[in-house]
Amino acid sequence: MTGSDVRDVALVTGASSGIGVEIARLLASRGHNLVLAARRTELMEDLAQRLRNSHGVDVLVLACDLSLPGAARSLHKQVVDSGRQVTLLVNNAGATLEGRYLDFATAEQTGSVNLLAVNPAELIHCCLPAMLERGDGRVLTISSLGAYWPCLPGITVYAGSKALVVNLTRTLDAEYRGSGVRFSATVPFTTDTAFIDTPTNREIVGRMPRFMIQTPADVARIAIDGVDAGRIVQHTSVVNRLLAGILKTLPPALVARAIIAFMSLGRDDIKASRS
Ligand SMILES: NC(=O)c1ccc[n+]([C@@H]2O[C@H](COP(=O)([O-])OP(=O)(O)OC[C@H]3O[C@@H](n4cnc5c(N)ncnc54)[C@H](OP(=O)(O)O)[C@@H]3O)[C@@H](O)[C@H]2O)c1
Q: Is 188 helix (H, G, I), strand (E, B) or coil?
């Protein structure tokens, strides 16, 4: 296959739902060809068909479980083997495990770290060499305000994994500055997607002021604007930025006690950790 036969694409993980769907829509509306990756292929095939019809873009759907070791490498290989090259990588897929550490098998906890941190990092490792060779490329990773909490009891490995990708983004920006490849991490807080439709989150969100809950379309637009503007870390609202600043100054033990007290209202397992 010659260089001119290779098709430039934006690879969006977690494109079957929520923020990933909105990012895919936005990119398609700007004429980007896409690769959509997640586990639920029917949802992505449906979205792909709608994007082809309305924007005339090429869309490839790939099934992958990014909680599995090596999933990023195998996903990237499928993209390359299909004659495509990733010019914009969007690491968006994510989920939480609600409960204390031992409530889940070791494979599940490891899988969560794979999904949130290891596979996103590995996808960047796979895509970066060709981007550097071309002197052009963009990497967007969807982190979370969770990255700024000193600890988050009840979703044990989430905060640390999300912190890793923010730190990785800043570090890669420093290491590859001037190369033509730009790195951006977006930091949303509560966004109205299936992600917050869990017993604990419903309880927390129910007590939050409405203005703090963002739509996935807004988060997608702000994230892509952040990439366009070359912002290394893009908070999705002023409130989130302020919260991130405050959280960094709080003592971890105090934060842990407050979270456990707050979350225990609806959570027997967390309540048990206080006794
Ligand atoms: N919503 C919020 O309040 C919020 C706040 C801060 C950060 N975030 C972050 O935003 C990102 C997108 O979440 P969302 O709010 O749009 O939630 P969502 O609607 O639940 O979407 C999550 C996406 O991730 C994919 N995914 C989950 N597990 C996967 C796996 N093992 N392998 C491959 N794909 C997987 C899901 O696809 P399949 O199930 O089809 O695999 C889905 O497409 C996540 O990284 C999340 O941490 C969300």
A: coil
Which residue's CA is the closest to the ligand 1 atom numbered 34? 38
Beta-carbon count within 10 A of 74 CB: 12
**Segment 201-260, tens digit of pLDDT:** 887 788 889 899 999 999 999 999 999 999 999 999 999 999 999 998 999 898 888 888
Give the domain extent around 132.
Answer: 3-269
How far from 105 is each of 95, 102, 119, 150, 170, CA to CA, in Å?
A: 16, 7, 19, 24, 32
Q: Is 275 within a domain?
A: no
The answer to the question of residue 250 being in a domain is yes
In a domain, 253, yes or no: yes
253 CA distance to ligand 1 middle (Å)? 29
Number of domains in the chain: 1
Please report the pLDDT score of residue 206 as a whole number: 84
Q: Whose CA is nearest to atom 44 of ligand 1?
A: 94
In a domain, 50, yes or no: yes
Whether 47 lines ligand 1, by a CB cut-off of 6 Å, is: no
Residues 213 and 192 sit within 8 Å (Cβ to Cβ)? yes
**Which residue has the least CA distance to atom 8 on ligand 1?**
144
